[in-house]
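During data preparation, a discrete fold description was generated, as reproduced here:
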Amino acid sequence: MKIFRLEEAIAQLPALRPLLESLVRVRRDLAIALLEADVASHLDPGRAGGNPTALRQRRARELQRELLSLIESIQRYDCVLKDLNLGLVDFPALRGGQVVNLCWKMDEPTISFWHGTDEGFAARKSLSKRRT
């Protein structure tokens, strides 16, 4: 597990932001594609081959592969992907000698929050002027 300094984590944001934006979009598109494939299979369960159900299922598989590829790309930055819908990531860091998580959402301009490793998003605390 990599331990980040705040400056190191912030330096990752320009590369991570577009990946997370794509991840959220693909996740949404996949949910829609799976729902459409399910509905289509119930409306016309007897057809096979190149029918709309098969096309929707193929599209869902393509989106699943794309989603997994994006997750792998994000994980290469040594951050921890916490929420695919929010584009939320944590960066392990030291604060007061303890391992904590610097917490960032893709719609935030920078990393401004942290929480303990046994806490989550709801327990985020604002970073003080003291650097981690």
